[in-house]
């Protein structure tokens, strides 16, 4: 019993010194942000191509359908951009927390 108490007392300082990261998934968030920004840029280019192609169609109903399709994709893309903004804010907060934690005296 005494040995268990002594071992526990010896290991407690080691646990007290290690602080958990304020953002354990920080690297994953940055990777997701980078990948999604690339996807958003490619999608935005494709939407422009869709709109330009719709402009060359002479049939009003087909052109209108193509524009509605492009509008739908643009709505989805705008939602993704909003998600990216929230993700960037979270990453910025994590960076700030890490700076604060690293500036604290040890």
Give a structural overview.
With 106 residues, this protein is mainly α. The chain has one domain (2-103). It is built from three helices and no strands. Helix 2 runs antiparallel to helix 3. The longest helix is centred in the C-terminal third of the chain and has 44 residues, at 60-103. The chain is rod-shaped, with a radius of gyration of 26 Å.
Quick recap:
The protein is mainly alpha-helical.
What is the strand and helix layout of this fold?
Layout: H1 2-17, H2 26-55, H3 60-103
Helix pairs in contact: 2-3
> What structural category characterises the helix and strand content?
mainly alpha
Q: How many strands appear in the DSSP assignment?
A: 0
Mean pLDDT: 84
Number of domains: 1
Largest sheet: none
Question: Roughly what fraction of the amino acids lie in strands?
Answer: under 5%
Task: List the total number of helices.
Answer: 3
Low-confidence stretches: none
Radius of gyration: 26 Å
Task: Provide the succession of SSEs.
Answer: HHH
> What percent of residues adopt helix (DSSP H or I)?
over 70%
Oligomer: single chain
Head-to-tail CA distance between termini = 33 Å
Net shape: rod-shaped
Summary keywords:
single chain; 106 residues; mainly alpha; 0% strand; rod-shaped
